[in-house]
Antibiotic biosynthesis monooxygenase (Aliishimia ponticola), 104 residues
Amino acid sequence: MSVIHVIAVITAQPGQRANLLELFNKNAATVRTEKGCIAYEATIDTENAGPMQTEFGPDTFVVVEQWESMQALGAHAVAPHMKEYSAQSKAMVAGSKIHILSPA
């Protein structure tokens, strides 16, 4: 099976992105040690990218992930540290959309 790509678009409650990113980045260090994790990083709009960019905006960040398999991604989703992160971040999150992708 080929590598699994995940694009997670996370929108924070207004004015909460910095706090949410701080919590995310603390948890990300643990996620990167998970079996099957190739990449796991929060990203934000690049400043001054010009007209080619469609911005997500000041309350949103995008998590770019790569996993060795769907099994690894599944284990990540139910890991204790992810459950804890979800509980801690719930009040700061306005919405999220998770896109799970395979190479074409």
Q: What stands out?
A: The longest strand covers residues 4-12. The two ends are 13 Å apart (CA to CA). The chain has one domain: 1-46+76-103. The longest helix spans residues 17-31.
